[in-house]
C-alpha cells in the first residue's frame, strides 16, 4: 500500500470487504476499506487490548485512532451490556476510517458512537475513559504530540488503556508518559500478551 493509514484522504481506490469477528461475546460482521489501519483482519494488538478492557465508566469515552472501529464497537457493546450511559468519540484523521466506523455502528445499531476528527471534539470535553492502539508508526515526535494532546484530558478518576508492541518501544513509551503526565497520574503496565503490553493510566480523583 503506497499510502499510510494516517493519510487524511486516501486517493487510492477504496476496496471494501467484510470481516466476521467476535466483539463483546457476539459474532458480528463489519465492513472495512483499503487505506485504513488493518483492513483485512482484527489487528493482533487491538485483539489483545479488547481482551483486557474492563467495562467503561459512565461519561465520555475516547477511542483515539479508531480505524474501522473495533475498539469503539466493543466499548459500545460493553456499555450496553453493563447498562452504562457512555458517549463514544471515535477519533481518526483518516476519512475512510471515520466512514467505516460510522457504517459499522449503524449496521450494528450502536447509536452511542460518534466518528469525529480532532477539530470536532469540544475543547472543554474531558473523558472518563480513553482507549487506543496508538499509531506508533507515525514517528516518535508525532506520537508524543498526539498523546500530549489527549491523555491530559482524562477526567479526574478516569482511566486510559493503550496497547503497544514490546518491540516498538512499549516500555520506553511508558517511562515517557510517566514523566509527561506528572503528578496526579499513575501509569503502569497491567498486562502482557503475544508481544504486546497493556499500558494503563489513572488520573487521581
Structural overview:
Helix content is 28%, strand content 33%. It has helices at residues 44-51, 70-82, 95-107, 140-150, 170-181; strands at 16-23, 26-33, 59-64, 86-91, 113-116, 127-132, 154-165, 185-193, 196-203. The protein is built from five helices and nine strands. The mean pLDDT is 94. A seven-stranded mixed beta sheet has the order 5-4-3-6-7-9-8, sandwiched between helices. It is an alpha/beta fold. The protein is globular. InterPro entries: RsmC/RlmG, SAM-dependent_MTases_sf, Small_mtfrase_dom. One of its GO terms (molecular function) is methyltransferase activity. One of its GO terms (biological process) is methylation. It comes from Brevibacterium metallidurans. This is Methyltransferase.
Q: How would you sum up this structure in a few lines?
A:
With 205 residues, the chain is of the alpha/beta class.
Could you estimate the helical fraction of the residues in percent?
25-40%
C-alpha termini separation: 44 Å
Strand order of the largest sheet: 5-4-3-6-7-9-8
Q: Which strand-content bin applies to the residues?
A: 25-35%
Protein name: Methyltransferase
Domain Methyltransferase small: 28-199
Keywords: Methyltransferase, Transferase
InterPro entries: RsmC/RlmG, SAM-dependent_MTases_sf, Small_mtfrase_dom
Amino acid at each position: 500500500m503506497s499510502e499510510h493509514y494516517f493519510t487524511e484522504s486516501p486517493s487510492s481506490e477504496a476496496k471494501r470487504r467484510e470481516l466476521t469477528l467476535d466483539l463483546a461475546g457476539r459474532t458480528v460482521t463489519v465492513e472495512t476499506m483499503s487505506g485504513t489501519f488493518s483492513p483485512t483482519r482484527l489487528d493482533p494488538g487491538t485483539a489483545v487490548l479488547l481482551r483486557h478492557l474492563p467495562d467503561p465508566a459512565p461519561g465520555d469515552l475516547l477511542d483515539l485512532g479508531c480505524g474501522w472501529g473495533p475498539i469503539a464497537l466493543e466499548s459500545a457493546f460493553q456499555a450496553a451490556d453493563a447498562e452504562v450511559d457512555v458517549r463514544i468519540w471515535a477519533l481518526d484523521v483518516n476519512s475512510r476510517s471515520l466512514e467505516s466506523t460510522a457504517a459499522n455502528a449503524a449496521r450494528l445499531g450502536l447509536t452511542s458512537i460518534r466518528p469525529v476528527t480532532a477539530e470536532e471534539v469540544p475543547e472543554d470535553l474531558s473523558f472518563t475513559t480513553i482507549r487506543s492502539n496508538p499509531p506508533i508508526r507515525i514517528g516518535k515526535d508525532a506520537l508524543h504530540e498526539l498523546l500530549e494532546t489527549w491523555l491530559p484530558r482524562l477526567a479526574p478518576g478516569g482511566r486510559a488503556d493503550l496497547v503497544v508492541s514490546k518491540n516498538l518501544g512499549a516500555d520506553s513509551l511508558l517511562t515517557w508518559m510517566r514523566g509527561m503526565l506528572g503528578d496526579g497520574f499513575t501509569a503502569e503496565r497491567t498486562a502482557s500478551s503475544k508481544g504486546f503490553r497493556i499500558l494503563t493510566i489513572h488520573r487521581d480523583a
